[in-house]
Design brief:
The protein is of the alpha/beta class. It contains 13 helices and 16 strands. Helix 2 packs parallel to helix 3. The two termini are 16 Å apart. The N terminus is likely disordered. Bound molecules: guanosine-5'-diphosphate (GDP) (2 copies). One guanosine-5'-diphosphate binds next to helix 1.
């Protein structure tokens, strides 16, 4: 096994030790078909993609990390959500509103070949109300001949329209320069830095699992509401809560407290809330109603937390309603439907009676510790060497791919890069992940493993 001398994460191109410290967020807003997704793909396509091997990673992603001129930011594509949940207009407005609410700047996309429609006008009202820096993209300007149409969009009162062809790339550099000028260097609010400040917790779960009850129970009367930025309509509210002798920041609690009035589309709102809370959190406490059959929405929320790369704790609430029979089925559900988070600590609580509230903090701390674990390269390679010797990859087409060496490229969550002499099958990669967990723990954290094939 050739562990290279002095090899460390910085030697791998494109893989610095990126953590999940907050980056400025850009919301891409516009009515359907103006080319938002095409534009988002163009923007993130500039970045060298790292092939991630995490199960289920590609589904329903709305937040992407992007880089322009060396500056990193997050891109929220507000168009990627379940399109048929709400009526079209309500859907577009809701997406825009929530997207804008959580963003530091807005990229408003209009189809220049169509001009501004009533829906566009409605969106502009929402953007104005939010008062966030906004860049206007006049899309589908594929050639010189359509540039005049872009100029008409000056009349929208959002400043200079940047003529762009998301499809062909025309004008996207100028657009991104304008976007970078509009985005703050770092998010202005004090969500807390990685070191020192209170740890950031997202309390998530589908409606009625008991989120607000739990929040009230743990917070008591002592909570401090922070992040009410003067002069903005920014709605998410963070609360500082004393638990187990420490201060924790529960992010985005307004979304927990406020009852959503829409009945149709409540799921849709809940998903956006969850995404926005996860965006700001380090650890997610996923609440599940233990008295009811696990719902698809529960697993979807867990998947969101995993895909966001957050530490995860599963809290089974309403344990006071547990009986023998339910308990039996619950065990089966955990085995069958929660395999993707077998590694997450579980606590069985009751927000009503206060049962096992004291177990919450140790579970959160365990998950955060796993999330921040770093395995020294030498130790990792000693482990990989033994693993390769005792469990070699199956021979395929007369060849036997080998893991040559590996390194941990990042933490929060742990990310590994393995260098191999050939393609490693998914089954073998899962085996490697399982053994990594057996050896090093990683309780409460997703881990990602990418494989680079050395020719
Ligand atoms: P979204 O609904 O706003 O995300 O829009 P999409 O990105 O899905 O694009 C809608 C349609 O417009 C697709 O057929 C795209 O290929 C097309 N489109 C997007 N950008 C451009 C562009 O710059 N020029 C032209 N001609 N078509 C585009
Ligand atoms: P949220 O929508 O997730 O914020 O859920 P709520 O906190 O509003 O709770 C929904 C319902 O479940 C309310 O009627 C609560 O009183 C009830 N509830 C919450 N936690 C518990 C619990 O631990 N045990 C029982 N029996 N009921 C609970």
């Amino acid at each position: 096994l050739a562990a290279e001398e002095g090899f460390d994460a910085e030697d791998i191109d494109g893989l610095g030790d990126a953590d999940h410290s907050p980056l400025p967020i850009l919301a891409v807003v516009g009515r359907p078909n103006v080319g938002k997704s095409t534009l988002v793909n163009r923007i993130i396509g500039r970045r060298e993609a790292v092939v991630e091997d995490r199960p289920g990673v590609t589904r329903d992603r709305v937040t992407y990390e992007a880089t322009w001129n060396g500056r990193r930011f997050k891109l929220v594509d507000t168009g990627g959500w379940e399109l048929d949940v709400l009526g079209l207009d309500a859907m577009v407005a809701a997406q825009a509103e929530l997207g804008i609410e959580t963003a530091d700047a807005v990229l408003f996309v209009v189809d220049a070949t169509v001009g501004a429609t009533d829906t566009d006008e409605a969106l502009i009202k929402i953007i104005r109300r939010a008062g966030k820096p906004t860049v206007l993209c006049a899309n589908k300007v594929d050639g010189q001949s359509t540039e005049a149409e872009a100029a008409y969009l000056w009349s929208l009162g959002l400043g200079e329209p940047y003529p762009v062809s998301a499809l062909h790339g025309r004008g996207s550099g100028d657009l991104l320069d304008a976007v970078m000028a509009a985005l703050p260097e770092a998010p202005p609010q004090t969500f807390g830095t990685a070191l020192g400040g209170p740890r950031r917790v997202a309390l998530i779960g589908r409606p009625n699992v008991g989120k607000s009850s739990l929040l009230n129970k743990v917070a008591g009367e002592d909570r401090v509401v922070v992040n009410e930025l003067a002069g903005t309509t920014r709605d998410p509210v963070d609360e500082l809560i004393e638990l187990g002798g420490k201060t924790w920041k529960f992010v985005d609690t307004a979304g927990i407290r406020r009852r959503v009035h829409l009945t149709a589309g409540a799921d849709f709102y809940a998903s956006l809330r969850t995404a926005s809370a996860l965006e700001k959190a380090e650890v997610a406490v996923v609440l599940i109603d233990a008295s009811e059959t696990l719902a698809e929405q529960d697993t979807r929320i867990i998947t969101m937390a995993v895909e966001a790369g957050r530490a995860v704790v599963i809290a089974y609430n309403k344990w006071d309603q547990m009986d023998e029979e339910r308990r039996y089925y619950l065990e089966r559900e955990i085995e069958q439907d929660l395999v993707q988070v077998q590694w997450a600590p579980r606590v069985n609580v009751s927000a009503l009676t206060g049962r096992h509230m004291e177990k919450l903090v140790p579970a959160i701390e365990t998950a955060l510790a796993g999330w921040e674990t770093r395995i020294p390269t030498a130790r990792l390679n000693a482990f990989l060497g033994e693993l390769v010797a005792s469990h070699p990859h199956p021979i395929r087409g007369g060849k036997q791919p080998r893991i040559l060496f590996g390194t941990q490229a990042g933490t929060r969550p742990p990310r590994f890069v393995l260098f191999a002499s050939g393609f490693l099958e998914a089954g073998y990669r899962r085996f490697v992940e399982r053994r990594l967990r057996e050896e090093f723990g990683f309780v409460g954290t997703p881990i990602s493993i990418s494989v680079r094939v050395r020719e």
